[in-house]
Amino acid sequence: MTAARHVVCPHCASTNRVPADRLGGGGKCGRCHQPLFTGHPVVLTATNFDRHTGGDLPLLVDFWAGWCGPCKMMAPIFEQAAAALEPEVRLGKVDTEREAPLATRFAIRSIPTLILFKGGHEVDRLSGALDLAGLLAWVRRTV
pTM for the complete prediction? Predict the structure, then answer.
């Protein structure tokens, strides 16, 4: 029997048990019946943040703001990374203007800042924009 992984739905934030050997097959949420993997970053808020960091998948979070030039440059790269890294890593975005308490909680001093979480704990962080190859290499080294 294959171990199950707890995967948080990007749509309704409910936790789903998925056999580890079936992660690549997609799957749908048992609650809302939406796909568990979309190839897009999840919008993270104070309401759903802890739920997503507590899942079994590593979570890479982009702390950004709409007025930030490097953040705008990084947005399509982060989107491409989500498609490349799922289902091994979930990607999420926190708008630091709308979710200021989260930015304060994680002492975000410059943006974009990327933080990688595993098991609910921060394992690494990086500030500044990256190209796709650099981003993927950093995540794969760290996970």
Answer: 0.94
